[in-house]
């Protein structure tokens, strides 16, 4: 493993420092999980954002950005959630991982639909979930497809879900 400093000189990491970095990364991962499970989403975000520079692969980044985005969605910050969903999707695309592409696409759809429902723009929210459904059909993930279809049905049925956002 190599790291580069500000003058672009390559400095090899010692095995001891590498193990320490891995330990810190795992600890931040666990801390974020605990906070998310007990509903302390901002603290989870703080832990996971600190972990970002320690991520070793695009797959890890896809997962990390997705988790941060989910927390922002729980915090009612749909726009920030959407940004993290896009970052997750980009990392999943770079990794070529279809399952994480689906997770990221669904997160982006949820964030967009949340914003659209607040504006009572139900047709746009339905179209957003239609795009997510197409991605779910590629995986294939029956559970994801059924979940997306259920939400889409609620939105089409006169905006019953929209009342939750008022």
TrEMBL record:
Q: Where in the cell is it found?
A: Cytoplasm, Cytoskeleton, Cilium axoneme
Question: What InterPro entries does the record tag this protein with?
Answer: ODAD4, TPR-like_helical_dom_sf, TPR_rpt
Top-rank taxon, per record = Eukaryota
| Residue spans of the TPR repeats | 25-58
Gene3D superfamilies linked to this entry: Tetratricopeptide repeat domain (1.25.40.10)
Q: What cellular-component terms does GO give this entry?
A: axoneme
Matches recorded under PANTHER family? OUTER DYNEIN ARM-DOCKING COMPLEX SUBUNIT 4, PTHR23040
What is the protein named? Answer: Outer dynein arm-docking complex subunit 4
Print the keywords alphabetically: Cell projection, Cytoplasm, Cytoskeleton, Repeat, TPR repeat
